[in-house]
User: Fold this.
Amino acid sequence: MNRTLIRGAAIITMDRQGDLPVGDILVTGDTLEAIAPALTVVDADVVDASGCIVIPGLVNAHMHTWQTALRGLAANWTLLEYFQKMHAGLATVFGPEDLYIATLAGALNQINCGTTTLADWCHNNRTPEHNDAAIAGLLESGIRAAFFHGTPKPDPRPGERPFWEAPHPRTEMERLVKTHQGRPLLSIHAAVLGPHYSTLEVALHDFRMARDLGLIASLHQGGGAARTPQGWDRLEAEGLLGDHVNIVHGHALTDSQLQRFCALGMSFSAAAENEMSQGHGHPITGRLRAFGRAPSLGVDLESVLSGDMLTQARVALGMQRSLDNLAYREAHGTIPPTSTIGTREALSWVTLEGARMLKAEHRIGSLAPGKQADLVLVRATDLNMQPVHDVVNTVVMQTSLANIDSVMVAGRWKKRSGQLLGVDLPPMLAALRASGQRITQALGLVPA
Ligand SMILES: [Zn+2]
Assistant:
């Protein structure tokens, strides 16, 4: 079995055992075998990681990876423009090959940026072929992926049932589970409409389906008025809520709902930068913290913003500090004596909380013996990083893609010395550009 000894790095474990100012990590197969100040191992590939900070692989808890070929196109759109132009427009002309190349390129970029686990919320999949293509992209990338099977949201056509009255396609969900559940790097889950975007009958059907199949049910909550405002009460009364339910955004929830859902163990994913940009409102980070909980974070849309998860951590941290600072100033007339949230907590949102959202905290999200070997080497000797006074502060506040030196997923190097391994980028990017051009031209958004 392959063994790798990563030697001489500063190690941020995000685990109870604490950090190591200098330490070694032994990886055997796909598993972290040992983490200690100094390890003596004879039969391992030795990697000199001096000058690096090792962190757990980042978890992107929410991204619509199918939009990678539309990068930046929606940068100035509000949520209303996004629904109209993306879901009712551009999304309708995607073929399976568009999902494949967008998902492959988007997932590879995640690895490049230090993400080792991606929750791919795929809701532009009209046919089984679209699903197969997206999953092929995920598998080819080598990222650890959770494929959240969603449903498209086109404008209703005469004689057709509108999307909010359409139950989640259980047969297709079952096919995907049967084909893929249990693969080492892929899990299948349900991206359902939920009471915000569907009728009560559909919400009940979809939540029962997720429960029956043992899947996480993730849903968007926010963006305009809820279609079934009382739906949550009914779902709870039916015993359909619990730690397998993930709410994305969540702004429209009342404090009492949020408190109740926290007590039920439900998870919450914020897309802080996109929420602020498109008009959702402020991320619910502070409201969750008041109930002793925290969000996982997601990029949401590369059609709007960058795929870098450390940027998401910084934005979410800055946003919540700003709200907290303002509240303090209003209450006390002066600047608060210290920050409400530290950088380590922000790092936990993109590691531990992401793992928790996927109910995979026993496998990923921190560095500890027995867990999966998903890790990132951050090069701390670079111009924008020196000097390092506090490794966590440096990772959260200073680190960019330029400093992501190496990335390991399940014990395999996917990036070394700043370069993705085993990827021929020029033809892949040419295919991505061609896909983006075809889709935008089909809708007349750019001249043919
Ligand atoms: Zn989303």
The first strand starts at residue 3 and ends at 11. The first helix runs from residue 79 to 87. Residues 62, 64, 121, 220, 248, 300 surround zinc ion (CB under 6 Å).
